[in-house]
C-alpha cells in the first residue's frame, strides 16, 4: 500500500476518524466526543448511533483536512468491525462501505482489540514484536503475547470488572466526579497507599485478574468506617484502592514477562495514563513502550495502524460486511 | 408478579446458585431485571444464571460496553448494564436488538429506565442488598405462571 488509509472507529462513545500513512505515520487523529454525557459520562446505545451519524462526516472531513489530503489521495478505508455496540459500529461500517463503493477503494475490517495492540506500531518509533501487551481500559483488561504485527494471543483477562471500571466505580463510592480515574489518582496523592489493605485477586489462577473483589472491599471499608471517618480518610482510601489495582496489574505483567521470557512490555488503554501504574511498570526492568495517550484511549489512528497489517475484505463481499458485538476471543 | 421469595445468601457462590435455579426455567424472549447497589453481586448473579444456561466463556461486567452477548449456551444471551445511561431508555424499542424474542436478556441497573418493555416479557425481578459481611439478601419476584 503506497497511499494513506482513512480509518473510522465508532465502537462506543466517541466518533473517531484518522488518516494514517503507509509507513505508520499518523497524519491526523480526530476524536469527537458526543457531548451528550450524563452524570456518569454515559450514552444510550441507540442515541450513540444517532450521535455517531451526526458526527461521522464532520470527523472525516476534519481528519482529511488536517492530513492535507482529499478522498482522491486515499489508498483504502479501514473501519472497526467489533466488538462493541452493534448500532454504533454500523455507523462506521456503513460510512466506510459508502466511501469504498463511491471511490472504488479496498475496505479493511479491523478488530477493536487488535487496534489497541497495533497502537504500538506508530511511526517514527514503532515498538516491534515480540512483546507482552497489557491493555487496561473501562471496558477491557487483558494481557497478550504479541509475536507478529497481525495478531496476538490472550494470556489472561479480567474475570469480572475491567481495571478502568474499578477506578471509576471506586471514585464514585468516594464521591468523586466522572471520569473517576484521574480524580481518584489526584486524591490518592495526598493519601497513604498502605493505610488499608485491599485484595489483589491473588486467588485468581494464571494471568487472569479480578477487580470485583477490590471494589466490594472498598465498599465494606466505607461501610465500616461510617460517613464521618470515611470523609476524614478519603485520601488514604483512594491511595490504598489505587495501590491494589496498580499492584494487581503490575504483578500480572511481571508474571507474563517471566512466563514468556520476553523482556519487552507495552501498555495501552485509558488506564495507561495512571502515574503510579507507569512508575510500577517502569520498575519491572523490561523495555517498556507506552504510546502517546491519544493512541491509548479509543481512537481511529490505531485502527489505521492495524489496517496496514490486515488484508482487505474481498471486493465482492465488501458491501455485505457486518459489525459484530462480541469477537472470537473470550474477552 | 405475585410469586416473591426472599433468601439470604452467605457468599457469592450461594448467590450464583440462586441465579442458576432461576435460569433453568427461562425460555427465549425472557427478560430478567437485576437491581442493587454497587458491589451487591449483580454480575455474580448473571454469571450464575449464564453457567446454568450452558455458557462457559467469561461473563464480565458490561458497565462500559453497555452490552455483552454470549452465544455459546443453549439460548443466546444479552447481558446489559444501564448504569452509564443518562435518563433511562424510555422506549424499549431502542434496545430491541438485544431484547429480541429469540434471546434471553439480563439487565443490570434497570431502574435507569425501560419504559416500553412489555410486562409479560419480564420473567423475574431480582433485587440484591448488602447485609453484614459477605451476606446478601436476594429478593426474586417471578412472573405469575
TrEMBL record, chain A:
<dbReference type="InterPro" id="IPR022450">
    <property type="entry name" value="TsaD"/>
</dbReference>
<dbReference type="InterPro" id="IPR017861">
    <property type="entry name" value="KAE1/TsaD"/>
</dbReference>
<dbReference type="GO" id="GO:0002949">
    <property type="term" value="P:tRNA threonylcarbamoyladenosine modification"/>
</dbReference>
<protein>
    <recommendedName>
        <fullName>N(6)-L-threonylcarbamoyladenine synthase</fullName>
        <ecNumber>2.3.1.234</ecNumber>
    </recommendedName>
</protein>
<keyword id="KW-0819">tRNA processing</keyword>
<dbReference type="Pfam" id="PF00814">
    <property type="entry name" value="TsaD"/>
</dbReference>
<dbReference type="GO" id="GO:0061711">
    <property type="term" value="F:tRNA N(6)-L-threonylcarbamoyladenine synthase activity"/>
</dbReference>
<dbReference type="InterPro" id="IPR043129">
    <property type="entry name" value="ATPase_NBD"/>
</dbReference>
<keyword id="KW-0479">Metal-binding</keyword>
<keyword id="KW-0012">Acyltransferase</keyword>
<keyword id="KW-0808">Transferase</keyword>
<feature type="domain" description="Gcp-like">
    <location>
        <begin position="25"/>
        <end position="304"/>
    </location>
</feature>
<dbReference type="InterPro" id="IPR000905">
    <property type="entry name" value="Gcp-like_dom"/>
</dbReference>
<dbReference type="GO" id="GO:0046872">
    <property type="term" value="F:metal ion binding"/>
</dbReference>
UniProtKB/TrEMBL annotation, chain B:
<keyword id="KW-0479">Metal-binding</keyword>
<dbReference type="GO" id="GO:0002949">
    <property type="term" value="P:tRNA threonylcarbamoyladenosine modification"/>
</dbReference>
<keyword id="KW-0963">Cytoplasm</keyword>
<protein>
    <recommendedName>
        <fullName>tRNA threonylcarbamoyladenosine biosynthesis protein TsaE</fullName>
    </recommendedName>
</protein>
<keyword id="KW-0067">ATP-binding</keyword>
<dbReference type="InterPro" id="IPR027417">
    <property type="entry name" value="P-loop_NTPase"/>
</dbReference>
<keyword id="KW-0460">Magnesium</keyword>
<dbReference type="GO" id="GO:0005737">
    <property type="term" value="C:cytoplasm"/>
</dbReference>
<dbReference type="GO" id="GO:0046872">
    <property type="term" value="F:metal ion binding"/>
</dbReference>
<dbReference type="InterPro" id="IPR003442">
    <property type="entry name" value="T6A_TsaE"/>
</dbReference>
<comment type="similarity">
    <text>Belongs to the TsaE family.</text>
</comment>
<dbReference type="Pfam" id="PF02367">
    <property type="entry name" value="TsaE"/>
</dbReference>
<keyword id="KW-0547">Nucleotide-binding</keyword>
<dbReference type="GO" id="GO:0005524">
    <property type="term" value="F:ATP binding"/>
</dbReference>
<keyword id="KW-0819">tRNA processing</keyword>
Amino acid at each position: 500500500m503506497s497511499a494513506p488509509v482513512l480509518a473510522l472507529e465508532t465502537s462506543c462513545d466517541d466518533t473517531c476518524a484518522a488518516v494514517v500513512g503507509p509507513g505508520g505515520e499518523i497524519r491526523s487523529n480526530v476524536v469527537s466526543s458526543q457531548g451528550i454525557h450524563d452524570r456518569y459520562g454515559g450514552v444510550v446505545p441507540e442515541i450513540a448511533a444517532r450521535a455517531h451519524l451526526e458526527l461521522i462526516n464532520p470527523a472525516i472531513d476534519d481528519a482529511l483536512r488536517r492530513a492535507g489530503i482529499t478522498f482522491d489521495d486515499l489508498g483504502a478505508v479501514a473501519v472497526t468491525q467489533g466488538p462493541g455496540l452493534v448500532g454504533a459500529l454500523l455507523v462506521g461500517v456503513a460510512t466506510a462501505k459508502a466511501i469504498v463503493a463511491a471511490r472504488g477503494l479496498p475496505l479493511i475490517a479491523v478488530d477493536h482489540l487488535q487496534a489497541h495492540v497495533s497502537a504500538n506500531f506508530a511511526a517514527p518509533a514503532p515498538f516491534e514484536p515480540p512483546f507482552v501487551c497489557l491493555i487496561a481500559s473501562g471496558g477491557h483488561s487483558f494481557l497478550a503475547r504479541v509475536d507478529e504485527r497481525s495478531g496476538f494471543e490472550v494470556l489472561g483477562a479480567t474475570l469480572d470488572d475491567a481495571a478502568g471500571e474499578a477506578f471509576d466505580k471506586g471514585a464514585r463510592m468516594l464521591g468523586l466526579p466522572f471520569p473517576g480515574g484521574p480524580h481518584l489518582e489526584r486524591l490518592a496523592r495526598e493519601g497513604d497507599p498502605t493505610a488499608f489493605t485491599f485484595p489483589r485477586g491473588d486467588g485468581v489462577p494464571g494471568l487472569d485478574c479480578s477487580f470485583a473483589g477490590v471494589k466490594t472491599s472498598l465498599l465494606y471499608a466505607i461501610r465500616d468506617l461510617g460517613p464521618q471517618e470515611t470523609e476524614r480518610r478519603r485520601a488514604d482510601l483512594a491511595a490504598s484502592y489505587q495501590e491494589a489495582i496498580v499492584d494487581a496489574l503490575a504483578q500480572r505483567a511481571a508474571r507474563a514477562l517471566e512466563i514468556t521470557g520476553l523482556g519487552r512490555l507495552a501498555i495501552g488503554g485509558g488506564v495507561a495514563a495512571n502515574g503510579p501504574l507507569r512508575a510500577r511498570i517502569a520498575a519491572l526492568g523490561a523495555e517498556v513502550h507506552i504510546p502517546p495517550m491519544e493512541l491509548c484511549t479509543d481512537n481511529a489512528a490505531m485502527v489505521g495502524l492495524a489496517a496496514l497489517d490486515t488484508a482487505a475484505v474481498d471486493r465482492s463481499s465488501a458491501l455485505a460486511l457486518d459489525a459484530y458485538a462480541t469477537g472470537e476471543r473470550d474477552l | 408478579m405475585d410469586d416473591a421469595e426472599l433468601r439470604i445468601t452467605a457468599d457469592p457462590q450461594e448467590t450464583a446458585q440462586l441465579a442458576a435455579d432461576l435460569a433453568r426455567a427461562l425460555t427465549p424472549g425472557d427478560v430478567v431485571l437485576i437491581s442493587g447497589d454497587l458491589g451487591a453481586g449483580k454480575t455474580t448473579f448473571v454469571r450464575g444464571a449464564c453457567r446454568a444456561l450452558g455458557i462457559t466463556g467469561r461473563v464480565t461486567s458490561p458497565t462500559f460496553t453497555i452490552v455483552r452477548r454470549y452465544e455459546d449456551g443453549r439460548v443466546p444471551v444479552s447481558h446489559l448494564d444501564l448504569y452509564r445511561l443518562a435518563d433511562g431508555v424510555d422506549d424499549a424499542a431502542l434496545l430491541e436488538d438485544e431484547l429480541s424474542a429469540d434471546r434471553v436478556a439480563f439487565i443490570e441497573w434497570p431502574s435507569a429506565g425501560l419504559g416500553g418493555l412489555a410486562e409479560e416479557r419480564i420473567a423475574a425481578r431480582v433485587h440484591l442488598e448488602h447485609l453484614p459481611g459477605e451476606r446478601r439478601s436476594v429478593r426474586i419476584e417471578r412472573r405469575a405462571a
